[in-house]
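Summary of Year 1 activities. Much of the first year was spent building the evaluation harness for sequence design. The harness presents a backbone, in tokenized form, and records the residue chosen at every position. We chose the following record to illustrate the format because it has been used consistently in internal testing since the harness was completed.
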């Protein structure tokens, strides 16, 4: 991305501890004097937060897989235009809780009209988003632990958490496979105390910054 700032995403299955770790990294980097913008997907701008409600609340069968890809991509485009790009142009460090890799995994492993949808996700990403994070932190955790953490957090947004442990296990494998081929990834073991995970995330981030 042609900007002065640094763009970091957190990825992982539901309940892996991404949100916790994104917040702890933002706090640590602010403590070191950096200007940090902490944001999330789907959402991160007023328009994208409206799309978040459309896509995560209500009847899970409301949208076809193809429509879902369009909604997540529309939300991301607004997030990029209104929040991420302006912050990077100011020179901030932008930390986002999920970005395009989530669509690649969650929507990409679904089937629509009989075909895998991953190619459609990538094609739309290239045309409508066109940027990748400088660094992606994958918080890796086994599906069972992630699932039990995620369901202990009751709420309206059950759309994807309800997919269950088997789907979360497939997503975990997908994220690990992506991390193996994309050098922007670092993989951190999330099945430990939050403070220990955060220390590893900070060390890896500072190494990458240097
Ligand atoms: P995610 O954003 O990946 O869904 P969260 O950070 O929201 O994950 O964490 C999910 C739940 O697990 C929350 O209730 C959180 O307090 C708890 N949690 C987060 N990190 C840890 C950890 N390292 N060990 C135990 N519980 C954790
Ligand atoms: P999130 O709020 O990060 O949930 P969690 O804290 O449980 O990980 O994301 C909400 C859900 O949206 C989550 O189940 C993953 C899903 N999602 C997609 O399916 N595609 C996407 O592109 C994004 C960003 C999220």
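For this record, the design step produced the sequence shown next.
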């Amino acid at each position: 991305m042609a900007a002065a700032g640094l763009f970091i995403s957190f990825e992982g299955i539901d309940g892996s501890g991404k949100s916790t770790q994104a917040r702890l990294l933002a706090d640590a980097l602010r403590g070191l004097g950096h200007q940090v913008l902490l944001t999330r997907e789907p959402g991160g701008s007023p328009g994208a937060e409206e799309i978040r409600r459309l896509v995560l609340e209500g009847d899970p069968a409301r949208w076809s897989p193809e429509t879902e890809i369009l909604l997540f991509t529309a939300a991301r485009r607004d997030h990029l235009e209104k929040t991420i790009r302006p912050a990077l142009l100011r020179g901030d460090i932008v930390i986002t809780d999920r970005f395009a890799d989530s669509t690649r995994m969650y929507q990409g492993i679904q089937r629509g009209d009989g075909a895998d949808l991953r190619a459609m996700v990538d094609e739309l990403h290239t045309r409508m988003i066109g940027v990748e994070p400088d660094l992606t932190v994958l918080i890796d955790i086994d599906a069972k632990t992630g699932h039990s953490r995620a369901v202990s957090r009751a709420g309206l947004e059950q759309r994807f958490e309800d997919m269950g442990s088997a789907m979360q296990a497939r997503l975990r494998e997908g994220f690990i496979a992506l991390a193996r081929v994309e050098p922007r990834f670092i993989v951190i073991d999330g099945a430990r105390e939050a403070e220990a995970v955060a220390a590893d995330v900070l060390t890896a981030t500072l190494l990458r910054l240097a």
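Strands lie at 6-11, 36-40, 93-97, 111-112, 115-116, 135-140, 185-189. Quantitative recovery figures across the full test set are reported in Table 2.
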